Amino acid sequence: MPTEFEMRQRNAKFAKDAKAGKKPTHPSRQDQLAKRSPINIYALGVIAFVVFGGGALSSPYEVITTHANVLTQ
Predict the structure, then answer these.
(1) What are phi and psi of 28, to 5 degrees?
(2) How far apart are CA 17 and CA 12, in angstroms?
(3) CA dist., res. 31 & res. 25, Å (int)
């Protein structure tokens, strides 16, 4: 249990922070988790690669095969 002196110090710090416009308390664990993204940044990168990377890889292949078909005709 904190002593009376420690409680007075903490109360004074709280009052000073509140008066200065700062957030005097630390956010709770639930508040911190609520602000986090629901998906990991690496998973988002993998999804972006699958969606956009597949289109980027197929386009040159289509150009080459189309050009080859034109040359063989």
Answers:
(1) -75, 165
(2) 9
(3) 12
